[in-house]
Design a protein that fits this description.
Elements (H helix, E strand, L loop, with lengths): L3 H15 L5 E5 L5 E8 L4 E8 L3 E5 L2 E6 L2 E5 L5 E5 L1 E7 L6 E7 L2 E6 L2 E6 L1 E7 L6 E7 L2 E3 L2 E3 L2 E6 L2 E6 L1 E2 L3 E2 L5 E7 L2 E6 L2 E6 L1 E3 L5 E2 L2 E2 L2 E4 L2 E4 L5 E2 L1 E8 L2 E7 L5 E7 L3 E8 L1 E7 L5 E7 L2 E6 L2 E3 L5 E6 L6 E7 L2 E6 L2 E6 L2 E6 L2 E8 L2 E8 H8 L1
Length: 391
C-alpha cells in the first residue's frame, strides 16, 4: 500500500494540525545533550525520559573508585525529579494501561532495575521488566555471578523477581508472563531442561521452548516445545520444522518457519480452523496477534523492512520500535526513526515527524507526548480529528 499520495496532501495540513496551540505542558527536562527515549506514562500526565548528559560520573564500591565516564544516561519524571543515574539505560518498560513503568540500566559492571520509585540490584545482568496489564504487578529476571560479554551472559544463576520477591535460582529464565486475571506464568530452566509453571500446572521437561505473550487458552497453556529437530504445539497435533517466530492469543497464532531455501514461511492459524501461509520472506524481526485475530508483522524482503498489518503491506519504514493496536482493534499506530528524525504513523498515515515522541491509545483517540527543546508537551488527538486529516 502506497503512502506517497497521502503525504503530499498531509504536508500541507500537518504543520497546523500537529503544532497547534494549547498543547498541554507535562514537564521540563534540563541538561541533556542527546535524547535517548521518551515514553508516555499515566495517560499522558507523566513521562519517562532517558537522555545522555555530559556530566562526569564516578562510581565507587566500598569507597574504591570502580569506574568513571563522561557521558551518562538519566531517568527523570515530569516533575524534573532525577530518579537514577546510569552509565547506560538499556530499556524503558511501561504497562499496557500506562500506570506501571520501570527502567533497566547499569553502572560499570553492576546492573539495576528500577520500578516506579523502587530500586532493585545490584546484579550481574538484568533481562528486562514485564507488567500485568493493569500495572499492579511486575516481574523481572536477573543474573548473579555471570559475566556479560558480546551481549551474552556467561555463567551465573538466574532469579525471577515477582512484585519484589525472588524465585530461584535457575539455570536460565524468561521474563514472567502475567495472565488477564493477574496470575503468573514462569518459564525457567532447571537441570538442563525448560519448565513452564502456571498455577498448579507444570509443563516440561523440554529441550527448548517458545512461550507466547498470551499463552493461556481455556484450561491450558499453549506453547511450542522442541524435541530433536521438530517443534510441537502442546495439547494439539501440530508439528513444525525450524520455528523462528511464534505468537498466540485466544486460539489464534502466527508462526514463522524456516524453509529449505532459508526463507521464513509465515503462517497464520487458528486451533479450530487450521492455518494458511501468508508469504515467504528473508527474515522476520517482530510481530503480534490479538485475541480477535488482528495481527502485524515486521519482515525483511529484498533488502527492505516491510510492515504487514492484517494483510496490508506498508514499506518505507525503518527501525520500527513500537506497534500498538487500539483496544477495539480498529486502529493501529507505530513509532519509528528514519534519517535522524522520529515519526509516528496512525493507520499507515504520518501524523508526527521531528523530535523524539511517543504515543498511546487512550479513550477515543491518541495521546502524543513529544520533546520541545527543554519541555515535554502532550496533545490529545481524537479519532475524528485524524479522520478529517486523512480526507
Amino acid at each position: 500500500m502506497s503512502r506517497g499520495k497521502f503525504l503530499v496532501f498531509a504536508l500541507v495540513l500537518l504543520p497546523f494540525f500537529l503544532v497547534s496551540c494549547g498543547d498541554r505542558f507535562v514537564g521540563s527536562v534540563q541538561g541533556y545533550i542527546e535524547p535517548l527515549d521518551l515514553r508516555v506514562v499515566g495517560a499522558g500526565t507523566n513521562f519517562v525520559f532517558a537522555f545522555v548528559s555530559n556530566e562526569n560520573v564516578k562510581v565507587y564500591n566500598f569507597e574504591k573508585l570502580v569506574s568513571s565516564f563522561d557521558r551518562r544516561a538519566e531517568f527523570v519524571t515530569s516533575k524534573s525529579k532525577k530518579l537514577k543515574v546510569f552509565q547506560k539505560v538499556t530499556g524503558i518498560f511501561v504497562s499496557d494501561n500506562l500506570s506501571g513503568y520501570g527502567v533497566v540500566g547499569y553502572r560499570g559492571a553492576q546492573w539495576l532495575c528500577v520500578v516506579g520509585d523502587n530500586e532493585f540490584g545490584l546484579y550481574s545482568y538484568v533481562k528486562g521488566i514485564s507488567f500485568s496489564s493493569d500495572g499492579s504487578r511486575f516481574g523481572f529476571v536477573y543474573n548473579v555471578g555471570g559475566e556479560v560479554s558480546n551481549n551474552s551472559v556467561l555463567g551465573g544463576k538466574y532469579y525471577v523477581n515477582i512484585d519484589g520477591y525472588d524465585n530461584g535460582p535457575y539455570d536460565d529464565a524468561m521474563l514472567p508472563i502475567f495472565t488477564t486475571d493477574n496470575r503468573v506464568i514462569l518459564v525457567v530452566k532447571e537441570l538442563g531442561f525448560w519448565k513452564v509453571k502456571y498455577d498448579t500446572f507444570e509443563y516440561g521437561d523440554y529441550e527448548d521452548v517458545i512461550v507466547p505473550s498470551n499463552p493461556v487458552y481455556e484450561d491450558r497453556v499453549i506453547l511450542l516445545f522442541k524435541k530433536r529437530n521438530r517443534w510441537y504445539m502442546n495439547g494439539t497435533t501440530n508439528v513444525f520444522g525450524n520455528v523462528v517466530f511464534f505468537d498466540f492469543n485466544n486460539g489464534n497464532y502466527l508462526l514463522g518457519e524456516l524453509g529449505v531455501n532459508n526463507k521464513v514461511i509465515v503462517k497464520i492459524g487458528n486451533l479450530e480452523k487450521g492455518f494458511r501461509v501468508l508469504g515467504e520472506y528473508e527474515g522476520i524481526s517482530k510481530g503480534m496477534i490479538t485475541e480477535n485475530g488482528n495481527y502485524y508483522l515486521v519482515v525483511q524482503d529484498g533488502g527492505r523492512e516491510i510492515l504487514i498489518v492484517n494483510g496490508n503491506s506498508f514499506d518505507g519504514y525503518q527501525n520500527i520500535d513500537r506497534f500498538v493496536f487500539s483496544s477495539d482493534g480498529k486502529h493501529w499506530g507505530i513509532r519509528y526513526k528514519k534519517e535522524g528524525k522520529f515519526f509516528v504513523d496512525f493507520d499507515g498515515k504520518e501524523i508526527w515527524s521531528g523530535t523524539l515522541a511517543d504515543f498511546a491509545f487512550y479513550g477515543e483517540g491518541i495521546i502524543l507526548t513529544y520533546l520541545d527543546k527543554n519541555n515535554v508537551l502532550a496533545k490529545e488527538i481524537s479519532f475524528d480529528e485524524i479522520e478529517k486529516v486523512k480526507k
